[in-house]
């Protein structure tokens, strides 16, 4: 039985490969996003910790006194953590922009691949219909030949009977 050969299989393979590359690009950016979000969360936890430590230093009993040097160091550490968090947030915003662009490219690549897949499916369906038509024609031809052979056999049999009857007379 004949097999279906899609003439644009190389194009479909190329489009599938391009889509896979876009998927990998999105996955890489997603991994970076998760890393940055984790770092932002860690920094926010650090900021809360610094603020709690600063609050504890400022609410010490009056008898012990406030160590302003420690308070200043703690405040500086808190500010440094806030600046670091802001820088990470800016990086994260840029990363979200890149992620949106990469996802858009992935959707476009998937659409281009899907278009070729739909064309392949249409051509396969047309090929299948043509194969069915050819098979039906062959079956019709076989049936016609069988009928013709029976008809010829029947005529030959009748002719032989007639000859036998004529010879017998």
Describe this structure in words.
The protein has helices at about 10-60, 70-169. It has two helices and no strands. Helix 1 (about 10-60) packs antiparallel against helix 2. About 90% of the residues lie in helices and about 0% in strands. It has a domain at about 10-125: Helix Hairpins (Orthogonal Bundle), CATH 1.10.287. It is an all-alpha fold and about 170 residues long. The protein starts with 8 loop residues before the first helix and ends with a helix. The model has no long low-confidence stretch (mean pLDDT about 90).
Which CATH first-tier class of the domain at 9-125 would you pick? Mainly Alpha
What's the total helix number?
A: 2
State the helical fraction.
over 70%
**N- to C-terminal separation?**
56 Å
The major pleated sheet works out as: none
| β-strand number | 0
**Helical/strand content category:** mainly alpha
